[in-house]
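Hello Y.,

Per our agreement to keep a running log of every chain we model this quarter, I'm adding this entry. I've kept the format consistent with earlier entries: sequence first, then predicted structure.
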Amino acid sequence: DIQERELLALYHEAQELISQYQMDCAMVKLDAVLIKAKMSNNIEYIGRAFSLKGFLNYRRNETNHAINFYEKAVEIFSQNIELFNDELKQVKNSLGVLYTSNGELGKSLENLFYSVELAEKNSLSKATSFNNIALVYHVKEDYIKAINFFKLSISEEEMLDKPSLSHCMSVNVNIGGCYVKVGQLEEAFDIFSKTLKQCEQEEEFRIMIQCLKGLALVFLEKGDYKNAEICLKKAIKLSSFIDYRVHMVEILIILSDLYQKIKNHRDQFSTLKKALKLAERAHRQKVVLVLEALKAFHLDRMNYKEVGSTLRRILALKEAAFEKEKKEKL
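Predicted structure for the entry above:
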């Protein structure tokens, strides 16, 4: 009917605005969706609006606001679980990811296992749920459980009519990372090497970068600093080429650790400065991580003035983050 078409149009406009990162305009559109949906008691679009508001706040890195909106979506969709099973499963998955990032791992697993139950009742794929459960166990440093759930995620994906090769490759990278953590370096090397070849064939450059980082970590553990440096520099070059900066700060920090091990302090310092500049410009959540590495560098060099200066910056950023979190909870 007319109202349904109007709601769909407004909802799609909000999605488009989010993709363009026009978050304030998108929020206005979603408020309009909510008003219209509530007037007609359209449960589907009330739930979808709350869910998209959750995603919007997730993109803004406002985790607590995102959780609040997703919980409202759960409340709405739960009014008719059979009808909104798929939507509820997706929202529960999103909540699982958010609670993990918030450090609330018990709540995360509760939501994710519920999403698995919903999937099993309605013959839906459990690939994403298993992957997110594995990530929780990775955070808990229970790497064996993480590996098992990552493998379940791949098995689920491969059962689909059109499985996503990129999903399987990405999960394999995560498995390789777990193998490094438990000291199974040959298994890690094999899975990173195999996945890297697949990435080259499929031109999956982003996953290729993660493979190169993983191989570098294996070489570092083996004390093969030359090959570790080659892999890290390839990853940095490829990241710059495709303008993919998500992992570059972390890769630069690993490279600085390598330079510390071979006592190349000049390159260690310049790499950390590059990492800080990049974090400040494109990945502000990593700024404290880089500053911690810089503080350790100055401490090793007994440059206590720079240690104090860097420490004050770290404390100021942590205090600002704490105040922001308090405001979000209010």
